[in-house]
Design brief:
CATH class of the domain at 63-100 and 136-195 and 272-358: Alpha Beta
Helix content: 25-40%
Strand content: 25-35%
CATH superfamily of the domain at 63-100 and 136-195 and 272-358: D-Amino Acid Oxidase, subunit A, domain 2
Number of strands: 22
Structural class: alpha/beta
CATH topology of the domain at 63-100 and 136-195 and 272-358: D-Amino Acid Oxidase, Chain A, domain 2
Distance between the termini: 35 Å
Oligomer: single chain
């Protein structure tokens, strides 16, 4: 018998760590999860709660460099890079720019789509199999366009999506108006993705935590990692503000904080914190029937039975946790161009959080190339909610020495994680 606190010690209590805990417990492994705040309280809290295989095409696409340079001139643009001296960010941006070509775009898109498709199916199984009260709806998803030219340009992604079995249909302005009365008149049309879905992210993570605890998993909140003890097996102990914790295997699922802790273990992983924003309201009288992306403004809109959220944008400003009023105003202003009621009657919350952005838009899933008992499940970018269940399944299978349902090679940490 081992004296470890658990067979698997998970660092990070967001949706990724919770999903990994669930699938490991289902395989009979003991799990202890450490979270510095409250479970689901960071990036998993304020996102729009969409499950979107439609988002498989990676951000690094041909023409993106020029678009990003134009956006940099405006603090309210969908992408904003705060002017400052930051060599690590500059190196990361150059690596992303180097991937803005058809070959890398397609390779990342196929791998991203495989994980999103797997996760979409597993999430629905999990919701109904575990009776999760999280507002799940297989509602489909609209990309909405005011410009006919932008709508036509977006259709260039559809062959790649079709290759992955992701269905889509194009609606003209009249069909869109009939389908979605929440939109203002004059829209050029939309691309509809019937396989996408939505849920309430805060409820989903709370329900995952409940399931983990009921299965015998231990969740410790308010426990911050302060360091590591390295030894014969790799990581012998994790040091925290509440004392030492040990596990036969240690899984790092720390999102945007992962690079800092990985560096202390001699690993360099190319993750940058991409700051996203959201505003949550009471539900307006006329709310969208399904999630929308208002494409020209890059604003995501999600309505639940008892709430309404505007979200998205990407800001690279390091770990600055201040709310940027310009970015928040851009969400409301963008929504007002498309929606009859762009805000609800009462504003509940303004939020920002960091997404762990990888240079190739793919997470790091698997064993560390440097420590025999360290595993990584991080770098999910803006897709953590939509990739969580698939990540849990892949990590559990790899730890058990089984072949996962999708090829794990594109997500292997060895492709990037190197000695710091």
């Amino acid at each position: 018998m081992s004296d470890d606190d658990a067979e698997v010690l998970i660092l990070g209590g967001g949706v990724i760590g919770l999903a990994c805990a669930h699938y490991l417990l289902a395989e009979g492994r003991s799990v202890r999860l450490l979270e510095q705040g409250r479970v689901g309280g960071a990036a998993s809290h304020g996102n729009c709660g969409t499950l979107t295989p439609s988002h498989s095409p990676p951000l690094a696409a041909a023409g993106m460099v020029g678009q990003a340079l134009r956006w940099m001139l405006s603090p309210s643009a969908p992408l904003y890079i705060k002017p400052r001296w930051d060599p690590a960010l500059a190196k990361w941006l150059l690596a992303v720019a180097g991937r803005c070509n058809a070959r890398d775009w397609r390779a990342s898109g196929l791998a991203k789509g495989a994980l999103l498709n797997l996760s979409r199916a597993l999430t629905e199984d999990l919701v109904f199999g575990q009776d999760l009260d999280c507002g799940f709806r297989a509602s489909g998803f609209h990309y909405v366009f005011r410009s006919a030219r932008a709508l036509e340009r977006q259709q260039r992604d559809l062959p790649l999506l079709a290759e992955m079995g992701i269905r889509a249909s194009v609606l003209d302005g009249a069909a869109l108006a009939a389908d979605e009365p929440a939109l203002r008149p004059g829209m050029a049309g939309a691309i509809h993705f019937p396989g996408d879905a939505q849920l309430r992210p805060d409820r989903y993570t709370a329900e995952l935590a409940r399931v983990v605890r009921e299965a015998g998993g231990v969740i410790e909140e308010g426990v911050s990692v302060t360091g590591f003890e390295s030894g014969r097996r790799g990581i012998d102990a994790v040091l925290t503000n509440e004392g030492r914790r040990t596990g036969g295997k240690v899984l790092m699922a720390m999102g945007a904080w992962s690079p800092q802790f990985a560096r202390s273990l001699g690993l360099a992983i190319p993750i940058q914190p991409g700051k996203g924003y959201s505003i949550t309201y009471d539900r307006p009288a006329v709310a969208p029937r399904r999630p929308l992306v208002l494409k020209e403004r890059s604003v995501c809109v999600t309505a639940w039975d008892d709430g309404f959220r505007l979200g998205s944008t990407m800001e690279f400003s390091g770990y600055d946790d201040r709310l940027n009023r310009t970015r928040l105003a851009a969400l409301e202003r963008g929504a007002a161009e498309y929606l009859h009621e762009p805000a609800g009657p009462h504003k509940r919350e303004e939020w920002c959080g960091w997404r762990p952005m990888m240079v190739d838009d793919l997470p790091l899933l698997g064993r560390s190339p440097r420590h025999s008992n360290l595993w990584l499940a991080t770098g999910h970018g803006m897709m953590g909610m939509g990739m969580a269940a698939g990540t849990g399944r892949v990590i559990a299978d790899l730890m058990l020495g089984r072949a996962p349902p999708i090829d794990p090679a594109p997500y292997a940490p060895s492709r990037f994680a190197a000695q710091a």
